[in-house]
């Protein structure tokens, strides 16, 4: 990774993110977005993030892309706990416990 | 207009913001560790956290950069992650749009998921709040969270390489994201959008330049919107026999 690659990303991403955040606040008394735009924006987070992590869960680099029972079960537990409790911290703790428990059980390290 | 009233709203917001430290601290720490491991200098990592100031987008960008994705793909994907903030901006503008420009500019910079969520809930619960009270509440809610995001990143850089292999740190990012996504599954439309995103991302995983994720995201967004429309029509039909 070259320095210019990293710095360009930081600066362009910084400006772009700021412009998104400022967009409607910047327009005085900003009125509502059209319905169709809001309807799409509502799904941005659930449209990007699951796709981003799906390959990391199924084909982790740490096991050279082999499906890993410890990581897969940790992912399922995290998601299930998050879904049932709506509690981010509880989900992280249960997922982490599952990961370490499974790694220990399987003697992976 | 009493100054003490505004001040008390600042502290109400502050108290509402404190619990989010439990998410922000580990997440920021992890970003410091992962970025350092990816080869970022400490100045670059600190700049990333303080300039971009958006955890999920930072991790998304970092993941693609490690894969040597072209810079346009890195930026397009990370900005796609942040598009939700346009929605935050629009709904905050309804309540804070009359504030002076410099305050709105500052509000925009520190507007993160958690501060947005607690603030908008409070504004809707107490619509009689004055503009200064709303602004005080917002800045109160971000005060515990925002500086700590940058501090936590610094701690992560400092801890850096001392984290042993058995801690399987590689998987902390997926776990954090899963924990954040799961509570977002509020409706059938959200779930179907997420499933679409997963299936297409896996299907297109082989495409060059990590283009697959962008395709998956755009299609998933459209699918979510269409399902929402379809569900709304269906409830209308049920309601009007």
From TrEMBL, chain A:
Keyword vocabulary terms for this entry: Membrane, Transmembrane, Transmembrane helix
Q: Does the keyword Membrane apply?
A: yes
Residues crossing the lipid bilayer are 6-29, 41-62, 74-107
Xref: Pfam families: AzlD (PF05437)
What is the name of this protein? AzlD domain-containing protein
Q: Which organism is it from?
A: Octadecabacter dasysiphoniae
Q: What is the lineage of its organism?
A: Bacteria, Pseudomonadati, Pseudomonadota, Alphaproteobacteria, Rhodobacterales
UniProtKB/TrEMBL annotation, chain B:
Q: Write down the species.
A: Octadecabacter dasysiphoniae
UniProt lists the family membership as follows: Belongs to the AzlC family.
Which Pfam families does this entry report, sorted A to Z?
Answer: AzlC
Keywords recorded for this protein, A-Z: Cell membrane, Membrane, Transmembrane, Transmembrane helix, Transport
Q: How does it sit in the membrane?
A: Multi-pass membrane protein
Q: Membrane-spanning residues where?
A: 20-40, 47-65, 71-96, 135-160, 166-182
InterPro entries attached to this UniProt entry: Brnchd-chn_aa_trnsp_permease (IPR011606)
Q: Does the keyword Iron apply?
A: no
Name of this chain's protein: AzlC family ABC transporter permease
Question: Where is it mainly found?
Answer: membrane
Q: Where in the cell is it found?
A: Cell membrane
């Amino acid at each position: 990774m070259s320095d210019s690659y990293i710095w360009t990303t930081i600066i362009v991403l910084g400006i772009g993110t700021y412009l998104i955040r400022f967009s409607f606040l910047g327009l005085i008394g900003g009125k509502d977005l059209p319905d169709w735009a809001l309807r799409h924006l509502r799904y941005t987070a659930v449209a990007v993030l699951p796709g981003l992590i799906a390959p990391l869960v199924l084909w982790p680099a740490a096991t050279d892309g082999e499906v890993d029972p410890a990581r897969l079960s940790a992912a399922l537990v995290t998601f299930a706990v998050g879904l049932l409790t709506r509690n981010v911290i509880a989900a992280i703790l249960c997922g982490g416990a599952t990961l370490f428990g499974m790694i220990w059980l399987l003697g992976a390290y | 207009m009493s100054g003490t009233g505004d001040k008390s709203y600042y502290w109400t917001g502050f108290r509402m913001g404190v619990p989010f430290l439990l998410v922000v601290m580990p997440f920021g720490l992890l970003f410091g560790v992962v970025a350092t491991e990816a080869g970022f200098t400490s100045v670059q990592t600190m700049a990333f956290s303080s300039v971009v100031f958006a955890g999920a987008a930072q991790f998304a960008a970092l993941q693609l950069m490690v894969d040597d994705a072209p810079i346009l793909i890195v930026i397009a994907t990370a900005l796609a992650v942040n598009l939700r903030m346009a929605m935050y901006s629009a709904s905050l503008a309804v309540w804070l749009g009359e504030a002076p420009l410099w305050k709105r500019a500052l509000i925009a910079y520190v507007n993160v998921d958690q501060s947005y969520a607690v603030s908008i809930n409070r504004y809707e619960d107490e619509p009689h709040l004055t503009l200064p009270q709303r602004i005080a509440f917002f800045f109160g809610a971000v005060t515990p969270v925002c500086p700590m995001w940058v501090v936590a990143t610094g701690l992560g850089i400092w801890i850096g390489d001392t984290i042993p292999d058995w801690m399987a740190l590689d998987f902390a990012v997926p776990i954090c994201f899963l924990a954040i996504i799961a509570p977002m599954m509020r409706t059938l439309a959200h779930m179907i959008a997420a499933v679409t995103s997963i299936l297409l991302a896996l299907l297109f995983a082989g495409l060059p330049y990590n283009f697959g994720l962008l395709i998956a995201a755009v299609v998933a967004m459209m699918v979510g919107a269409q399902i929402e429309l379809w569900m709304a029509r269906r409830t209308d039909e049920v309601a009007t026999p």
